[in-house]
Design goal:
The protein is mostly helical and 161 residues long. The chain folds into 2 domains: 1-69, EF-hand (Recoverin, domain 1, Orthogonal Bundle); 78-156, EF-hand (Recoverin, domain 1, Orthogonal Bundle). Helices cover 59% and strands 4% of the residues. The protein has 7 helices and 2 strands; from the N terminus they run ααααβααβα. It has helices spanning 7-20, 27-47, 57-69, 76-89, 99-107, 113-123, 132-144, and strands at residues 96-98, 129-131. Strands 1-2 form a two-stranded antiparallel sheet. α1 (7-20) packs antiparallel against α2 (27-47), α2 runs antiparallel to α4 (76-89) and α5 packs across α6 (113-123). The chain is globular, with a radius of gyration of 16 Å. Residues 77-112 form the EF-hand domain. This is Calexcitin-1. Keywords: Calcium.
């Protein structure tokens, strides 16, 4: 990734490409790289309040708190990030995420597969799949909900906070 990009974004990019088997030089590798750079650039422009080229935890939280006030008015990079996450989890490309796809992505970041499965059950309200429209609603709920048991709070695979 570009030198100004966050170490975390580089880590995520490498994890994603390894998980999907996309090697350097492939179209999907380049598409993922380009998407991650666009997301990082949008994030940095919006959240890097002190302009040090990094996004601190405080800046990250402040930016998402601002989003939570009006999620219908998301910035372009936030919408792109949402779509990127859905497409990443929808490994089959069939327009929905099932428990195996969800578990595969979430567990590659160090979460226990059993916790990921439990999170999917809570997120999907016991359904077999989550489509894009449902994912959008869950995403907004993740950032706006005050209730820890709301389904949207499980979109990243964690059940304990």
């Amino acid at each position: 990734m570009d030198p100004g990009a966050s170490t975390i974004f580089n880590f995520l990019f490498q994890k994603i490409c390894t998980l999907r088997g996309w090697s350097s030089g492939t179209d999907q590798y380049k598409k993922t790289y380009d998407s991650m750079i666009q997301i990082w650039d949008g994030l940095r422009q919006r959240a890097d309040a002190n302009k040090d080229g990094q996004v601190s935890v405080e800046e990250w939280a402040s930016m998402w708190n601002e989003y939570a006030k009006n999620p219908e008015n998301a910035l372009e990079w936030q919408t792109q990030y949402l779509r990127f996450m859905f497409d990443l989890e929808d490994a089959s490309g069939d327009g929905s995420i099932d428990v195996d796809e969800f578990r595969s992505v979430c567990s590659c970041y160090g979460l226990e597969p059993s916790e990921c499965k439990e999170a999917f059950q809570k997120m999907s309200c016991g359904k077999k799949e989550v489509n894009y429209e449902q994912f959008v609603a869950l995403w907004k709920q993740f950032f706006t909900s005050e209730n820890p048991s709301d389904p949207g709070n499980f979109i990243f695979g964690k059940t304990k906070f």
